[in-house]
Write a structure and sequence with these properties.
Length: 337
């Protein structure tokens, strides 16, 4: 519960009678007065990184959607870092994809092999024509050429790992840029802008308040000694909300939540939610902070309310297990007869 909602609840609690005194059964209907109309979503949007607030893209009253970028902190340094990191990544990626050194080493090894075999063939036909020292040197050159192939292949593998590291650096730079954006987590309206473009902000500092008014909640306190929680859970509800000028708005729904706790005076909290609507002036008919009368139908069968499920958090990329990473090392030297 936000601070604003908590203050409204406190104010209603002080003004309203004790739990149970505002509820009365009229046949199969439980009528509860002094219920509070409150917001479901009320966000004080804060910055995550220190810096100058270079843009605020909204003003009070702006209608927003979840995911909209509402402003951002200066990210010029992060953008430059990202550009440099991306060029490093491109360079290492090109090295990892190129097998030029491998092919060059293979050709050199073939030439060395041919020279060695030629010397061996000459000595087979005319022993002693090519000195033994020269034959051994040609053999060593061939063996070195074979090893050079493995060295080139190893360098390609290392370049692939290096490219992955550079790629992670680019992702880190992207994250720095994203952390400097003010992104709306809800659909709603900008209710209050507290900081303006050009001002310096610190991590955790609220910049604006966002509220959702297209769907609201009506909260009530009942007395467990007069009506048990299981009697009202899922029951259908009719609410009446005075909105001024002698007008009232009516909405239907059902009890969606019954608190698991009963406090010392027997009070427990329940609520229902409803879809708000606009009036003839295109303004929301009901605003948070108003009081309502809730009529709970105890006769009709309750609506089955499934327990809310925990939303799965987005999974982060799996951490690199360095111990399980392959060890890059050349294999044993080839044996040349």
């Amino acid at each position: 519960m936000t601070l604003t909602t908590a203050m409204l609840v406190s104010a209603i609690a002080l003004a309203a009678p004790p739990a149970g005194a505002n509820a009365a059964k009229k046949g199969d209907v439980l009528e509860v007065k002094y219920c509070l109309v409150s917001m479901i979503d009320h966000v004080r949007l804060s910055v995550r990184e220190a810096g100058a607030l270079v843009a605020v893209n909204v003003r009070e009253g702006t209608v927003i959607s979840k995911g909209d970028v509402l402003g951002n902190v200066d990210d010029s340094d992060s953008v430059i870092k990202r550009k440099a990191s991306y060029f490093d990544y491109q360079l290492e990626h090109a090295k990892a994809e190129s097998d030029v050194n491998v092919r060059a080493a293979e050709k050199m090894a073939k030439v060395a092999e041919a020279e060695y075999q030629q010397a061996v063939d000459i000595n087979r036909k005319s022993p002693g024509t090519v000195p033994d020292t020269e034959v051994r040197r040609l053999k060593l050159t061939w063996e070195r050429g074979l090893l050079q192939i493995e060295v080139a292949e190893l360098e390609m593998d290392v370049a692939k790992f290096t490219a992955d590291v550079k790629g992670a650096t680019v992702e880190a730079a992207d994250n720095e840029i994203e952390r400097r954006k003010l992104v709306s987590p809800i659909d709603g309206i900008v209710d209050h802008v507290m900081v303006h473009a050009g001002e310096w902000v610190q991590p955790g500092q609220p910049v604006m308040e966002l509220v959702r008014v297209d769907r609201l909640r009506v909260e009530a306190f009942l007395n467990a000694y007069e009506v048990s929680p299981r009697e009202v859970e899922g029951r259908r509800v009719m609410i009446e909300i005075p909105v001024g000028n002698g007008k009232t708005e009516q909405f239907q729904g059902h009890i969606e939540f019954v608190s698991s706790q009963v406090v010392a005076d027997g009070a427990y909290r329940v609520w229902m939610e409803f879809d708000n609507r606009k009036d003839e002036h295109n303004q929301w008919a009901v605003r948070p902070g108003l009081t309502a009368t809730m009529r709970i139908d105890l006769a009709t069968p309750p609506v089955v309310v499934p327990p809310p499920k925990l939303e799965a958090a987005p999974k982060a990329d799996a951490a690199v297990n360095l111990e399980a990473a392959p060890v890059l090392k050349p294999s044993a030297a080839p044996v040349v007869e």
